[in-house]
Amino acid sequence: MTIVVAIDGPAAAGKGTLARRVAKDLNLAYLDTGLLYRATGFAVIQAGGDLDDANDALKAAQNLTPTDLENEKLRHDEAAQAASKVAVVQPVRDELLEFQRRFASQPPAGKAGAVLDGRDIGTVVCPDAPVKLFVTASCEVRAQRRLKELQDRGLEAIYAQVLQDMKDRDARDSQRAAAPLKAADDAVILDTSDLGIEEVIEQAKSIISEKA
Prior knowledge:
This protein has helices at 15-25, 36-46, 54-62, 77-86, 90-105, 121-125, 139-152, 159-175, 197-211; strands at residues 3-8, 29-32, 113-118, 131-136, 188-191. By secondary structure, it is an alpha/beta fold. The chain folds into 2 domains: 1-14 and 115-212, P-loop containing nucleotide triphosphate hydrolases (Rossmann fold), CATH 3.40.50.300; 29-110, no CATH class. The chain has a 5-stranded parallel β-sheet with strand order 2-3-1-4-5, sandwiched between helices. It is globular and about 45 Å long. The mean pLDDT is 93.
């Protein structure tokens, strides 16, 4: 049986770091679903297509592979801007939803299972996943983490502004009509506010061993 671990949570809660480590330690495939729209938009650019053309965007989404998500350029602003354009195309959203479900049910590289992290994995993408974790932390702690991340990248940032941006994003994510950010009814809540990453990883692996 394929092991599927769904990890959701707000920005800077630590879900990405946790998901990558759990996947590595348990030899499972890992999917950062947040990169899907960036990869789709970037593929349109690379193909010389039009980001405002729904057909170009859909074609890029249909041809997307897990390997495409490994491109470091997806972290750059060009990919982020492109993502915002293709994300409004409903057929693209439908295609990428199926991409995530295929990844979960048929993990690449012959892996025995998959770890997916995002905003709606446990509620929409993989509602039947045997293991669902909702990783969270106080808004203040998450703002401090994001501030450090920005400063480590050499960017100027002010804590008060980062905190406000975090609160605004939380509101948008939790109040949107389509797939709002929320914990699945059967998800285990992991609050990382006062925990080190190794503690969180051990807790997650313990939960997975009990449920998978």
